[in-house]
Structure prediction request, 226 residues.
Amino acid sequence: DAGVIQSPRHEVTEMGQEVTLRCKPISGHDYLFWYRQTMMRGLELLIYFNNNVPIDDSGMPEDRFSAKMPNASFSTLKIQPSEPRDSAVYFCASSFTGRVGAFFGQGTRLTVV
Amino acid sequence: GDSVTQMEGPVTLSEEAFLTINCTYTATGYPSLFWYVQYPGEGLQLLLKATKADDKGSNKGFEATYRKETTSFHLEKGSVQVSDSAVYFCALIPKSTGNQFYFGTGTSLTVIP
Prediction:
């Protein structure tokens, strides 16, 4: 398996633009997580899904952020409109049921100018 | 609530020195415990895990023992190498939830030749 695949690896966009981050989890995994990492706040859980259903989105910063998982092999995190304070590395991770540990993607480094 | 507390960094060691990174947790019941490692520019990788009291997780020369009496899961390595330079995260999954992770703030390790 190729692991968790995220795209793009780097994204530079202007303030106010829409940004869409993509994630393909490991086949067969039933949990998918979106995290944001910054120097100031560390690693923050934004939202996670179980069997494509959002379970906890309490970490989503505000209404500008939305996440979807239309099927078991694809998820998106959208920011509209983007702001400079959204600049961070966004990670997607997936796991099996059973508390066995999650596998992370390489991350998307987002810069909003 | 459930949480993880890690020793603050950064930690700087000479090659072949002994490493300890402290991690304590707060959780009800018996959580699963994990150490993740993040190399520069990459995502988090699962380093080792333990799912019940007195279990020892080990990988790549690193070890950690699940101590319920002290609610700890300290990471150790007998002889560090320059290639071990990275950020290390302690994490737990509570028994009461599905697969939601709680991460510590991370400890940066630099090993100098």
